[in-house]
Amino acid sequence: QPAIVASVCFNWFNRKKDFSTIMLGVEPEFELALYTATHLLKANGASKLTLDASRRWRLEVQNFENDFALNHVHAAYLYRLKD
To answer: pTM here?
Structure first.
């Protein structure tokens, strides 16, 4: 079954996170590796990629570098691109 990109909001340590994304149906290690690889390619910007040869999984990962700790990911958001 293919993975799903879901938009979620949640509370973490009494702070509200209004928007985040998560991939359902894949290992968490894969998602972290995806964010790390795209951060290394473009720390402050968007990376477009395709995960399969049929081009059904076209994604964009938007990375934001931490202004206070360079070379650390501040935030990374995953978007599934429309065909």
So the answer is: 0.71
